[in-house]
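Quick log. Single chain, no ligands specified.
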Amino acid sequence: MLKKVIAATVFVLSLWSLSAQVPDNWYENKPITSIFFQGLNSVSKTELDGVFDSFKGKPFSDETYSEILQKLYALDYFSNIIPKAVPADSDYQYVRLEFEVTEKPVITLIKITGNNQISRGDLLSKIVLKKGDIYNELKKNADEQTIKNYYTEKGYATATVNSAVSDSPQGGVILEFTITEGKQTIVSEVTFQGNSAVGEKALKGVLVTKPAKFLVKGIFKESALEEDKAAIQQFYGERGYIDAHVENIVQDVDSETDPQKNLVKLTYVIMEGDQYTYGGTIFEGNKIFSTEDLAAKIRLSPGAVLNMTKFEQGFQAIADTYFENGYTSNYINRAMQRDSATKKASFTITIVERRRSHIENIIIRGNKRTKDYVIKRELLFEPGDVFSKSKFTNSLRNLFNLRYFSTVVPDVQPGSEQDLMDVILNVEEQSTASIQFGVTFVGVSDADSFPLSLFVQWQERNLAGRGNEISVNATAATDNQTLQFGYAENWFLGYPITLGFDLSVSHKSLFTYQDAVFPYGPFKSREEFAKNKDLANAYRMRYDRMETTFGIHTGYRWYPRYCTITWRGGINFSLGKNFYNTGLYRPADPTVRRQQAGWRLNNSFWTRFSFDGRDLQYDSSKGWFFSEQISFFGLLPKIEDEYFFRSEAKAEAYVTLLNYPVSAVWNLKFVLAFYSGFSFQLPLPNSIIGDDSKLSIDGMFIGRGWTTLGGIGKGNVLVNHWMEFRWPLAHGILSFDFFLDAAAVKKDLADLKTFSMNDYYMSFGPGLRFVIPQFPLRLMFANTFKPENGKLVWGNGKSADWQFVLSFSIPNL
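-> predicted structure:
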């Protein structure tokens, strides 16, 4: 504080000396043109510019100067600061601020001594100060405590850490941490005393502290004992023992058996008390919501064993009912009444209802690139609205689904009056541009085609910080080359309307069967014919196809309480032509023949409704999703080659099986995911559906691992199911998955009458799924099999045959 007063005095004196030659107060309200620092050696000018550039152009005032000075001292880089204001022009219309600074010493070396069990690299990664940083005593003391805490977490409860600073011969200072590690403490045994109503095995199951055994290190942590006490008390409380608690935890330390470690035996001394039943709840002061509605939130029946966890959940649900409807400043309290004779516990919930809270301001911090309006338009509330918890939660979900930010930290603070509040959103931006290139497995059904494809893709999902998307991608394989450009605006004219277009040019090398062998010779069906691969390959033909497509799409989003409803639709215009030697070949598919004679139009229209109740679209842990899309192919009568209708229904569900916090930054999490899809298409009268338009098992997304089905894997009806067990290894980055697929194709809807398990092509296997936008790949190994008359037959007809499958993480929207 003294330094700030001195700096302010010097600043005023500098202005006073100048005032002898210029008018008084010439600097007031004059724009600040620049801020200059003299005496910088280790501190980067660029870093300071990033902090103080925002003041340039602002009119000078005492408040502005005070804010600049406070920011300078808050950096804690300088031991002395001398400010000065000078005219930036001869007319004294602009102000230039100059600061003569004396830097604090720089850390030239960090020494760590006494660390035998924990590496220097681990310790350096934990502390804040680094070599080359400006020395800061507060940070040094914090780092000393950080190292101490780290040793405690590793079981070295008696470890001591001291720090010292000395001058370096090369200039600057040397920071040294001296550690006395002591012996690591390991839990050798856990026992209980006083537990007559609950068994020892059940109590051990709720403890954080575990004794050392196979795959369990048993590291003793003093901080975990408080968690154990709370867990035991909650366990008893769920069984009616509302007075139960841990009176003491006896620690018997054996320091002699193991020369390297201290072995500690823990004995939890428990006082159980009596078991109580639930006697009901009385409400006082509630006028906005009825007693019946509030009582229904507590899922306990009078006379049942009292479960305190369920009661607390019900009490929270009551508070949330008010909170959800904007009553955030209510007073809600609970009191317990006991009947020691009947062992019943009843409750009185007292409510003092106040006026609804309204949102006064929405403040966004941390967005350097993304425009404020891009963030605010995703919020389901605005200043003046009644505060709603569900709208607040769903707004955060919308921001996460944008994938513009690595973190979004919300905060709610009181406004200028009692019933007003400010919503503050602290965001940290991440890269929204991605350049991807590599080799992918294309899952072709033609055994002679090279199954790898080169691809290059550039995508920007937040163009110029305005929330628009643009992408360019190219694919090159031996049988497929594609160049595609896309653009989309997600909020057209300020409304949640999507409007975009796609343009693509492609060349494909395809195959079909010649009509010389139809109707299938000695075989009863095309499927039976295709199964005889030697004969089928002998009568197939190659042809090339050139195609260009232009598509326009749009959509609209609604945000009701429990899900996001989206409508999308679009129209595609395609022009294509087939090329083959008509003197040698005649395709059996008449569509292929017609599209060889000249360039043909293939237009389509589609529309889709989706209902999205997932927590996150790109890496869901809970929730559900359903969509229905209908498409019409062939829009211009008598001009196009195919006229048919297609329906595609998709449903997803996600359940979190386990979400256990292992550390401050990582949870052990298991998620079970389910998917079902049903698609069919119907030709218009006097029209057919060509092979290229048939539904198929592609081996990459549908029936993963099945890549050589040929004509068997195509039809006008597709059934696709999968189930995945997901284990996030790095949350938001990488997940280990184990999948089970089942897909089936039928010729048309009438064939569903004979649908059976024998129709499914199934596969299973493990894989790694990347969920980051810049690398949305899935690396899997699939083992294919098929049910045949109650038996399971391997896909190759012999034995297990693991195949590598490369796919993409593409969420349904």
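The chain has six domains: 2-103, 107-180, 184-271, 277-352, 358-429, 504-808.
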